[in-house]
Amino acid sequence: MNETRIAVVGAAGRMGRMLIQAIHAHPSARLVAATEQAHSPYIGHDAGEVAGVGALGVMISSEASKAFGPGQVVIDFTQPAATYVHLELAVAAGCSMIIGTTGFDLAGRERIRQASCSIPIVFAPNFSVGVNLMFQLAAEAAKALGDTVDIEIIEAHHRHKVDAPSGTALGLGQAIATAVERDLSEVAVYGREGHTGARERSTIGFSTVRGGDIVGDHTALFAGDGERLEITHRASSRMTFALGAVRAAGWVADKKSGLFDMGDILGFKTR
Ligand code: NAD
Q: Structurally, what CATH architecture does the domain formed by 129-235 represent?
């Protein structure tokens, strides 16, 4: 089995540390570089020690331009402004990229698409294998049940989350709407209050729960007459995202160029 050589940018972040743990535990992945912002207190520290897996001999650097080399896979869970810099450096160095960072606008997504003409990129708002499988299962259920059920999406996250509904809930809604040929922007209902009137069958409802340290729960509910089907995913650790990203790194390493998502890696399309 070929070894996948991985550079983790944002190495001291919540996801960065998880990624280094996941790479360390993987039989055919190796951490070859780790970066952080110039003012980070972790510059010069061993990335393995920061991640809690013991010294790996890879020091955290602020110089991504020196950290990237041909044939490497760069995993980026940082912030959009940093990802743009990493994209340019990855293209110049001939690296593949795994992008888990969220919050890109349309122009940002276009920059990623442009870069994917030169290098292979896996870009996904959720790297959990289970969530991406759930998109597929929910789309299948929606196709099979069609207009015989009411469709609702319920999500729960920790008290610090600032946006609602979650990007994953919206992605789930999009996968379902596409499957039943509805325009999500026309049929989505975000919360209900007061005299709402009877429910219209074609709508897709979203409900949000916020509290405590919930990592992320999502349910697609298909409610018919006399029965209901619920498809639920619960994330209990950020490790699920890290494992998916490292799996994607192994998959993308031998690709030449192109834009991919987790659906490609799992053998089905989710978007
Ligand atoms: P975090 O703030 O803990 O970590 C981000 C790290 O990136 C920080 O340590 C920061 O210093 C570093 N960073 C910022 N600019 C940098 C630069 N120019 N060079 C190097 N490092 C830089 O955040 P987090 O919780 O780890 O999340 C990071 C991103 O990943 C967010 O956008 C989040 O929404 C996303 N995320 C995606 C998934 C997924 O499955 N796609 C899962 C979890 C989080």
A: 2-Layer Sandwich (3.30)
